[in-house]
Amino acid sequence: MVKFLAALLAVMVIGSESARAHQPVVLLDSDTTAAKGPLLVDGTVSFAVRASFTKSGQTKAFRAQFKSGDQLSVQYLIVDKKPENALRTSSLPSLVITPPTGSPITIKFDERTKFFEPYGRVNYLYLARYSDLAQAGIYNFTITSKSKAAITVAVGDKEIFGDVLRGAAPTPAATPTATPTPTATTSGYTMAQVAANNSAKSCWAAIEGSVYNLTNWINSHPGGTGAIISLCGTEATSSFKGRHGNQSRPAAQLSGYLLGPLA
């Protein structure tokens, strides 16, 4: 799971099923609770949520929003190589899904189905798949490590671009007209904050009015590390658009690193 493009998971499932392209979302070390983690605005859109852990006892979490009657589709995946595929089931991170109402659901590992993802040329293993009709509201997904490991939680199956927010979820009661686009934070991040994160150890960039944490993209960028390092701490709209124009795939990749709006 070290390759970012592999996290797109243009999944080739064994058998006759067609490939699926999942929009990547990377969980940060600060995403320790669902409330602090990213919100998938539409949980039926295909997202590949990546969580990496360096030791046992760490927790990362995110949220996904559904309407009543939506299909809740969740898959638990690991890369088919060491150390992940050598870990016993009891040593892999746990995944607990908490619906808006009702009891938490602990995902049980009941398979080790191999498949080859052709885009990144990476072999993966399905460990679990869960499907149900969704309740209306926000589901919490909590991943807790038991050792050093990296996993991907795939949510949704619609192959379209989806919105990812950080901060409080939009409240319909507070916006009855339902027309404004919700923002990730109330005030946003300043350019001074962006400028302070100007190294490979902490790399932020402002692009088209939003702030992104590109730290984990540096070593995964197919064009090389220098292209991303040059953006650290800057207003990088012109640089990003100059390299990628209106290409949808780089924009989808970028969305997985969203921190929030630029103040």
Describe this structure in words.
The protein is built from four helices and 17 strands. It is mainly beta and 263 residues long. The strands form three sheets. Strands 1-3-11-5-9-8 form a six-stranded mixed β-sheet.
In brief:
With 263 residues, the protein is mostly beta strands.
Order of neighbouring strands in the sheet with most strands: 1-3-11-5-9-8
Strand content: 25-35%
Number of domains: 2
Residues in helices, as a percent range: 10-25%
The radius of gyration over CA amounts to 18 Å
Instruction: Identify the overall geometry.
Output: globular
CATH architecture assignment name of the largest domain: Sandwich
Using brief descriptors, characterize the structure shown:
single chain; 263 residues; mainly beta; Jelly Rolls; Flavocytochrome B2, Chain A, domain 1; six-stranded mixed beta sheet; 17 strands; globular; disordered N terminus
Chart the SSEs and their pairings.
Elements: E1 23-26, E2 39-40, E3 47-53, E4 59-66, E5 71-79, E6 94-98, E7 105-106, E8 113-117, E9 122-133, E10 137-144, E11 149-155, E12 164-165, H1 191-196, E13 198-199, E14 202-207, E15 210-213, H2 225-229, E16 234-235, H3 237-244, H4 248-255, E17 258-261
Parallel strand pairs: 1-3, 2-4, 14-16
Antiparallel strand pairs: 2-12, 3-11, 4-10, 5-9, 5-11, 6-7, 6-10, 8-9, 13-14, 14-15, 15-17
